[in-house]
Specification:
Elements: H1 8-14, E1 22-28, E2 34-37, E3 40-45, E4 48-50, H2 62-69, H3 78-81, E5 85-87, E6 93-103, E7 106-119, H4 129-135, E8 143-146, H5 153-164, E9 170-174, E10 195-199, H6 203-214, E11 218-221, H7 227-238, E12 242-247, H8 252-256, E13 262-266, E14 273-277, H9 290-295
Parallel strand pairs: 8-12, 8-13, 9-10, 9-11, 11-12
Antiparallel strand pairs: 1-2, 1-7, 2-3, 3-4, 5-6, 6-7, 13-14
Helix pairs in contact: 6-7
């Protein structure tokens, strides 16, 4: 993971922290820099986290910081910028706020940048052990991992790809280049010896093309949303291919309508995963979560 694009003062402060617990850096022009650390939002000064906003680091040239971070040039990131984010080498994802220029109802460019939300990827071996044991150990199954943003869905998918590729041909459809986090040479996270990665493009096109080209047994993809993404999943399932995916959707009725055999809810960084079957009955040793059971009665 490369954070060397950060200003020297902020980068030095970040190096005082345990990066295993750093998940977000929020930069707003002229305002205190705020980080998410150990699941809590904190200010950061030259020595690390702090409680006092007056001591916190502030950055004023946010536009210049973005341009410096995009070392390959703005043109290389033009398509990503239309979605108001970019994924840098190492899987660092940077959300962008500023003046959106629109054309035909879609963002065509971003200028006068005022805020950046830098999300830090993690590679945690063993984090998906419970999900794998309850949903994949006896037979390959389609699963959906869901939670609000920032609770580790992509990290779980990365580890599932690694575990499943021991026995199956796995295809990672990495639309935002966050699961594999490959650089321009194709080097990224080690996802296992039987794993193929497709980057970029919409999911429906990527699914239909890569299924014919690569003949996967399971597809792993991130952040499903909308009918087009669901059509891609349905196409794969109709072809007899299992899909492991993630979503921010938490509405039970909407989830149950999706073609998945298990649903896995992340409850917080370092906290228990709750696994449900197709009818949202709690599976296995998730049964101790009585509050979760009550919350998902339908």
């Amino acid at each position: 993971m490369n954070l060397n694009f950060l200003p020297e003062g902020l980068l030095g402060a970040i190096k005082c922290l345990n990066l295993n617990y750093l998940t977000e850096i929020r930069i707003r022009r002229g305002q205190p820099v705020i980080i998410e650390y150990r699941g809590e939002y904190e200010y950061i000064d030259s020595c690390g986290t702090c409680k006092n906003a007056d001591r916190a680091i502030r950055i004023y040239d946010v536009d210049g910081l973005l341009k410096y971070a995009l070392s390959d040039g703005l043109y290389a990131y033009a398509e990503q910028l239309k979605n108001s984010f970019v994924t840098l080498d190492g899987g660092v994802r940077m959300g962008i706020a500023g003046e959106y220029i629109t054309s035909g109802g879609k963002i065509s460019a971003v200028k006068h940048v005022t805020s950046l939300n830098i999300r830090i990827p993690h590679d945690i071996r063993g984090c998906a052990e419970k999900i794998y044991r309850l949903t994949q150990e006896s037979k390959l199954s389609s699963i959906m991992i869901f939670s609000p943003p920032g609770l580790g869905k992509t990290t779980m998918l990365r580890e599932l790809a690694r575990k499943l590729s021991v026995n199956y041909n796995v295809l990672v459809v990495d639309e935002r280049n966050e699961i594999a986090a490959a650089d321009c040479d194709g080097d990224g996270y080690d996802l296992g010896e039987r794993c193929d990665v497709v980057r970029g493009g919409d999911k429906l096109t990527a699914f239909s093309s890569a299924i014919r080209a690569m003949k996967p047994q399971v597809i792993i993809t991130d952040e499903l949303y909308g009918e087009t993404d669901l059509s891609a999943v349905k196409y794969a399932c109709d072809c007899g291919i299992k899909v492991c995916a993630s979503t921010h959707v938490s509405d039970t009725a909407k989830l149950k309508a999706m073609p998945f055999e298990y649903f896995c809810r992340l409850t917080g960084i370092g906290k228990e995963v709750v696994v449900y079957d197709k009818n949202f009955n709690i599976v296995g040793d998730s049964g101790s979560h009585d509050g979760d059971r009550r919350a998902f009665i339908v």
